[in-house]
Prior knowledge:
Layout: E1 2-5, H1 9-15, E2 20-28, E3 36-43, E4 51-56, E5 59-64, E6 73-80, E7 84-90
Parallel strand pairs: 1-6, 2-5
Antiparallel strand pairs: 2-3, 4-5, 6-7
Amino acid sequence: MKIEFDKGVKEYLLKKDMKSFHIDHGLQGCCGVSGICELEVTKGVPDTGSYRMFQVDGFDIYVNNMLKFKDDTMKIVLQLFIFKKISCRRL
């Protein structure tokens, strides 16, 4: 899998002491089970589940085995709205 970092993401991760993090399914929506599926980035090594581990630029990145990416490429981005948040895009 190819993992790319958007501009400023590595610096932000280092500032937040996130040398290890995992990427998993997230769910955003209001009512019922149907919602917009957004990937969640969480600090640390996952406790349970099946993950693939990738070492990229000094970061240990654990990706849930159930996640599929177009062209096997993922881009880690910094979202800026009210606060900063790390997110992933399926390229």
